[in-house]
Amino acid sequence: MSVMELDIKISKTPNSRISEFNQENIQFGKQYSDHMLVAHYEDGAWGTPEIIPFANLSLSPATTFMHYGQAIFEGVKAYKDANGKARIFRPQDNWKRMNKSAHRMAMPDVPEELFVEGMRKLIEIDEAWVPTAAGSSLYIRPFMIATDEFVGVRPATKFTFLIITSPAAAYYSKPVSIFVHDEYVRAFPGGIGFTKAAGNYGASMYPDQQIKKMGYDQILWTDGFEHKYVQEIGTMNVFFVIDGKVITPDLNSGTILAGVTRDSVITILKERGIIVEERPISIDELEEAYKNGKLTEAFGTGTAASVAPIGKLTFHTDEMQLRPVEEWEIVNWVKTTLDDIRYGRVADTHGWILPV
Ligand code: COI
Questions:
Q1: Angle at the Cα of 156 (from 105 to 77), degrees rounded to 5?
Q2: Within the chain, which residues score under 70 in pLDDT?
Q3: How many Å apart are CA 231 and CA 25, to the nearest integer?
Q4: CATH classification of the domain holding 49
């Protein structure tokens, strides 16, 4: 990947918090690195971006995004190779997806050099915050908010783009238990399900609270018309291994996020000669395959979650308990293969890595 020119102002903190960073106890989203990137959009143009010390924002209580949710985000990760050099995984793909979200949410495009080179520069400055412990990474959160000081409902004219970063370890430490929901809906065709809009996550909080009380980790959403076909998990896309084939819901209805990890997994599975089907998959089909012993593996994929095995899947009172993960072939292979690329243990033959 090439590196672009970017006019950027840099003010480094005189008070680094790096000595407070304990690599032995990393908890997702709890600690942020020393700096952040900020850029403002006004009068149809982006101003010069700045990298500044991580700090609170000062905003009017009338700021648009707080009221109407004109806010989008991305998730990207940087990894350290055996020589301690940081590398960012597929930032250009997240940039493209961010602009798809921006378009649907009537927000301005973020220029590639601002997103990609701004991110690279930020990670270069905060490279000490990219952890080295096995399975760890630096989670990168680019996001954009509408910042008009106006409580009337209309698309905003002022926006702020930011990137913050946070050391991350495994998002799920054990196989996840999933409740298949047929009451609440995440997304409809024509809606914003394919975007990474803040509102998609806000709307999931209540159902999420309910299933957590029942002892489940995550919801597998179903389609909004018949509650018949599975969609995605919200923090992850979903994959099933049935009869040796890998099956994942297709993206055609516009209700499912086009995950970058999803795409990476499909690519490397196909390269290994494994059949991958992107198509509608019904709960009936899953239950049938489970009963016949053909549903052998199930997993979620996402930037934060990486590749996360699903231990149990429940629909109504029907519990589908999968075999111990240690016996699974595909999920363990795909996770190792992806990690080998991310951590630089094998050559980057796909052009997925941006060296910092
Ligand atoms: C990600 O995987 O980057 C996500 O955005 C999922 C979640 C942490 C919101």
A1: 50
A2: 1-4
A3: 34
A4: 3.30.470.10
Burial of 316 per CB tally in 10 Å (0-12, 13-18, 19+) = exposed
Same domain, 122 and 222: no
- Residues in contact with 191: Cβ distance below 8 Å, sequence separation at least 6, in sequence order: 254, 255
Whole-number Å distance, alpha carbon 39 to ligand 1 midpoint, is 22
pLDDT at 1: 47
Question: Distance from the CA of 310 to the center of ligand 1, in angstroms?
Answer: 17
Q: Report the atom number in ligand 1 closest to the C-alpha of 302.
A: 2
Distance CA 274, CA 289 (A): 19
Torsion, Cα of 249, 353, 200, 184 (10° steps): 30
Ligand 1, atom 6, residue with closest C-alpha? 235
- Tell me the CA–centroid distance for residue 67 and ligand 1, in Å: 22
How many angstroms is it from 235 CA to the middle of ligand 1? Answer: 5
Residue 4 lies in a domain: no
* Domain ranges, residue 185: 176-342
CB-CB contact of 90 with 260 (8 Å)? yes
Please tell me the distance from the alpha carbon of residue 17 to that of residue 34, in angstroms, as a whole number: 6
Ligand 1 within 6 A of 234 CB?
no
- Report pLDDT for 234: 82
Evaluate if pTM is beyond 0.85.
yes
What CATH number does the domain containing 301 carry? 3.20.10.10
| Residue 188 in domain | yes
Residue 160 and residue 221 share a domain = no
Asked if the structure places residue 354 within a domain, the reply is no
